[in-house]
Amino acid sequence: MSNYLNAVFKLKKMFNLLRNKFRLQLAWRIIIIAVGWLVIISALHWWLNFDHGKRRIVKMGYMPVITNLAAPILDHATVNGDGIRFSSIKFASFAEMAEALRNEKIQVAFMIAPLSIVLRQQGEDVKIIYIGNRHESTLVVRKDLKVNKVCDLAGRTVAIPMRYSGHNISIMQLMEKRSLVGQVKVVEMNPPDMASALTAGSLDAYYVGEPFAAQTLRSGDSKVLRYVEDVWPNFICNLVLVRSDFIENNQKIVKMLVQSAARSGIWAKENCKEAAKIASRYWNQPVELIEFALTTPENRIAYDQFVPREEEIQHLADLMVRFNLLKNNDISGLIDDRFANAADLRGISDLATVLYPPSIDSETSLAQREIREAKEM
Asked: Taking the CB of residue 330, how many other CB atoms lie within 10 A of it?
């Protein structure tokens, strides 16, 4: 009996030793996995923010509309060469883009204007540094409907990009002015879905940045009810929003970003066909559609009104309060116009000149200086 008990005791002791050894091995495995995961995450962060040549990458979020034409142009212009790489990331919704900026997954957001005020009032330390191309939004209505005036929209369904959009505010102003409040159904819809919804009969009209309105205009499914500039001169669709700490830590980059964006608009105005080709590749939309949106009506798009003005943003905030989109109209600290005011628009010719102004003296060009500074960032 004693031999049996001794055998059982030895087996139990051996089992405990094996279990402890396994626990120790498991603990080491967990530590090794955790360290390995940390290394992978760090490497991935480096990979996403720097390219193989150790260029600094600035990630720009945007929606594929004409007001944000600078995003694909700057991406295209910095694909090769030295210095800063402006990498454009296309989003399907502004809400998703706002979260990406909030969580620092992107450094720059081509953001729909009213949402920038909302983010600021929610406690995000962000700044408006540039205004996108203006006069590029259109209110279109189904061609088969007897809708020829705004008042004919009574009982109809109209889509806008989101609640916090200038298009929504513009619609509310139109409804208020024509005593149509409560008579028009306004729905939120992502711009890429609007054309197909109207064609299918789910929508009667939609109000959006180009080229999304141009899709149904060119297909013959819609007609123009109003161009935004006819009801809201100098309308701001999208603007560029960055975090304050990004400005503080990267002033040379922000200067180059704003100046290049401003110069890209001037270049695009004179080179619509080439600008449309570039945007087509990034937006996965037909060149002909984008060119139509850029040129119809002729000279419609305003490319040179890129400086953020406090009075314009304040007016927008006042309207948001008026239409119960905000509780207060505070925009203090939201605008930083110094980079846009300082933008050098001289000597814009080919695409290469979008990034850098011409020589300012016989010895050193500003372009050379910017390249050198960018390499040092």
From this structure: 14
Amino acid at 123: G
Asked if residues 61 and 101 have their Cβ atoms less than 8 Å apart, the reply is yes
Tell me the one-letter amino acid at 128.
I
Cα–Cα separations (whole angstroms), residue 221 to 151, 216, 271: 20, 5, 29
> What is the C-alpha to C-alpha distance for residues 246 and 360, in angstroms, rounded to an integer?
28
Residue type, 265: G
Alpha carbon separation from 360 to 91, 346, 356 (Å, rounded): 38, 10, 11
Tokens, residue 253: 């980059």
Question: What share of residues in the chain are helix, strand, coil (percent, to 5)?
Answer: 50, 15, 30
What span, in angstroms and rounded, lies between the C-alpha atoms of 36 and 282?
35
pTM of the model as a whole: 0.81
Question: Strand order of the sheet with strand 108-112?
Answer: 85-90, 57-62, 108-112, 238-243, 126-131
Q: Who's near 49: CB < 8 A, 6+ residues apart?
A: 56, 57, 59
Q: Token pair of 6, please? A: 């001794």
pLDDT tens digits, 314-365: 999 999 999 999 999 999 999 999 999 999 999 999 999 999 888 644 334 4
The values of phi and psi at residue 146, to 5°, are -90, 65
Phi (first) and psi of residue 207, to 5 degrees? -125, 115
- pLDDT tens digits, 52-61: 557 899 999 9
CATH of 57-133+236-285+304-376, one of 3.30.530.20, 3.40.50.11270, 3.40.50.300, 3.40.190.10: 3.40.190.10
The residues, ordered by sequence, that sit 6+ positions from 111 with a Cβ below 8 Å of its Cβ are 94, 97, 98, 101, 119, 238, 239, 240, 241
